[in-house]
Amino acid sequence: MSYGFTCTKCGSSDLDYQRLARVTEPVIIHPDERVEYGPTTIDNTEEFEADRFFVCRECGKRLQIWNRPATKEADLIEYLRMTPEQRTKMLHNDLDYLVEQMEAELYLQKAKTRMTGNDW
Ligand SMILES: [Zn+2]
Question: How many angstroms does the Cα of residue 117 sit away from the middle of ligand 1?
Fold first, then answer.
């Protein structure tokens, strides 16, 4: 049994840690309406945990634990500890889980409405 990452989509074993950053380029508009873009600035001062993902280097598929992305090292370990069967099963159960979540959310909304006496 191999202990490590194997993409459930493409089978690759190369893993990347993807971090989202804001990339901006100043816009220069010339009198002749020519538009030019200046040097790129990468702003990674604002970092959010939710903007970090473990992704497959080959196909870019994000590692998911149920319906949430794996963003921390602890998530990665949790993912790696699952058997390939669990990972595959998880993919198939994704939709069911989402429906459950939505129903729970709806229930909460109704409960809130009752409490505040807000009639929509
Ligand atoms: Zn892949």
Answer: 49
Same domain, 76 and 88: no
Confidence of residue 1 (pLDDT cuts 50, 70, 90): very low
Distances (CA, A) of 41 to 51, 106, 108, 110: 18, 43, 43, 46
pTM: 0.56
Residues 2 and 51 grouped into a single domain: yes
114: domain range?
A: 82-120
In the numeric block, the tokens 């979540």 are attached to 101
Question: How many whole angstroms from 68 Cα to the centroid of ligand 1?
Answer: 18
3-state secondary structure (DSSP) of residue 48 = coil
pLDDT for residue 38 is more than 90:
yes
92 alpha carbon – ligand 1 mean position (Å) = 17
**Separation of 16 CA from ligand 1 center, angstroms?**
11
